## 1
Amino acid sequence: MPAAEGALLRLRRGDDMHLHLRDGHEMADVLPFSARQFARAIVMPNLKPPVVAVRDAHDYRMRILNALPKGLSFEPLMTLYLTDNTTKDVVREAKSCGFIHGIKFYPAGATTNSESGVSELKKLYPLIEEMQKQDMPLLVHGEVTDKTVDIFDREKFFIERELIPLTRTFPGLRIVFEHITTKEAADFVLSASARVAATITPHHLLYNRNALFTGGIRPHHFCLPVLKREEHRKKLLEVATSGNPKFFAGTDSAPHPRHHKESQCGCAGIFNAFAALELYAEAFEQAGALDRLNYFVSEAGAQFYGLPLNGGTVVLRKEKNAVPQYFRFGQSEVVPLRAGEFLVWRMLDPDSEIKTTNKIV
């Protein structure tokens, strides 16, 4: 049953387990959105140049913290970019430093700034063996880049060609299958050991591939992995709202300048960080599972990564509110998901007066 207008939803401060913050002035413009919504985030390393060394991650982390507005508390959980040249010494240093929480695998050419990615995963099996030994999570962008494979089947083929052999060879390796988009991916995670988990984005819970073509080509709905059929969206919603600890929030919020999206060859990425919790709440409400949202955004991810639960709470109110057409983004602007349309939930300011008698959770 849908929540009544004005109803309140209280959540423990949570974690975005897959976030793109970019860098410089662009990062400074989008960081406050994530810091308001979440206490921590796994920050992706696909900058130009990529974050490949522990020192790179340290310096990037400091730039994030230095850009954080006063009054906001936010912990960036750093990652390294896996390349053909990553060494075992780097893995050991990353594990011992205390602020790196995973190493990210991008197949070369799979998505934004992935040119430095891995050419052939099996060549790195000796390195991955060290990751298993050090209990360093491998964060996976799960798509093949074979041009003979249909773009809507890239995830399914990746499971067959790469993930199944990987999990059989390294049963103790912690793996996060990032931003899954298909029922095949959901079923794989369900059937795998407790060492395998997955993040799910709000846009893959709310939209199917029809959203790419509603009224014409919609570049701000283009992301990688691309939106899939309705049957896949329904399966993702089923597992996200199930309370299974293998599935947790990872927004994959990926801002691009407007002119890079609205171009002859538009960039892949959806900017949802401004209202990630509101969008997740909408999806969970559609499934009649608002009571399970707190676990999905605030507990399951922390448990998988071995992190303490965050203190503090945030409150959402069932309230229709308009989404701006754009936000400032460095020297340009970024168009958010659902620009010019409406959200059905609103995150309240922490200083707002909240009557808890109406709370749902």
## 2
Amino acid sequence: MNKPQKKSGFYIDVTCPGCGGELELQRDFFSLECKYCGSVLRVVMPEAPPAYFVDCKQRKNEIRFKIDRHLKEQKLPLSRGELAIRKQYFPFWKVEAIQLQVTQQTVEHEPGHTNNPFTTNIDHGGNFQWGRALGSALTGPATSMPESKINVNLKPYMTTIAASPYMTGVPNSIGMRAEYIKIKPLTPEDGQEDADFIPVSANWNDVKAGLQKSIEMRGRAYNSGKYNRSELFRPEGSIVYFPFLIAEVGTSGGAYRFVFDGITGRILHMNEIEEVSDFPEETSIPSPDFGQINVKLHRCRNCGIDLPADKSSVYVCRNCSQAISIDQDYTLSNGVLIVKGGSMRSQADKLFPFWSFKLSPQIISRLVTPVSLDGPGDRLIVPGFHMGNFDAMRRLSRRITSVVQGYELSPILEYSPAFLPVTMGLNEAEIMAEAILYCSQLEKNPGVKASEFASQTEDVRLFYAPFHPENYFYVDSLDGAVTFEKNTVDIAE
């Protein structure tokens, strides 16, 4: 019998709207199938930052034992009398974004050796020593010449920041724990006995601005290059309420206050107090000022059949062939399209999704060299699927942007199993479009600012184009050109 796969990473509990069964959604949650009633469900995230909470794992009847053990280690008298304990949930902003890092690197090379044909690939295994002597004679003594190189890197960014005023013993961050601890969506009904939910006092806009400034300052401090810097693209925030236990107890030598981690039970802080406090009996309930996560039936709005239980921003219904856009905050111009002549040339073909943004030809010309005598086009193309690294995605974006003028697009008429999921939604694709434009300018002008080249889209399209695998690559099925490496995408053949 196969053992169930152990879950890892961030995941939350939800309830099936069909049968009420408890379900768990993991990190990249979007849709799933209910294991109780078989319904296909979709998670709808709110516009306002959502809030979650972490169940306290520590029992109050175990706290005195931990306190006495700690006092004994400190060679202090053991506790006596009544133990006052209060469970408190402190809010933390969990911030996720894409971090862009620009670094200026100085590379030294020897022009006499690298630029002279006589000195290319010499000294391999001790051979061709005559080449260096002849090259030096022709070019003169080699001199070291510095060359400045700009490196641009994009990577995921996550941090947690306290969202309430500082309290002695409570950390300013819960670090990466927000990525792997089990959390639940928070509702105003989640108030617990003997538990206080500390109000959120740090405004999301202020948190974003402060974090952006901090990232920029650290980017300049850690790197000495003139153009080195670090920026965040479109940070998204949510609130995570984390449990702490506040305990106060008296001893023969005085009274002490302890702060415990509500998950591990570790003592975070201890200090001496004048006397044990009387914690109020009333409890505070969570603030309702946050977005609510909803779970809906994942069905085609045209025919009502269940859509596939995979993560995608757009689906082509297998029953009515209708293209279904899940995101409600935008309208796709001309619907969802397919490259004409790319329906299915062979069974090996797969239809990859691409986002198409209309921009001015002047902006497009900064990104690619026109392949048409008519000049650059007016569409920036970004893959609608995730790739292994930003450089691979950027190369593919440039290549399709340069040839998209030759594509003839038509509406989708029938469903095909070759349609691949649109795993990169519109919001993320817009971030990528902005980053691609920004990076192309940084290579030419390292002093440029991102705001100068933010994408201004007039309309958005989504189209599918056919590619087929050959050896280690995916090949464009329309023109036979090798386009991108197979190992940069996670696609089952």
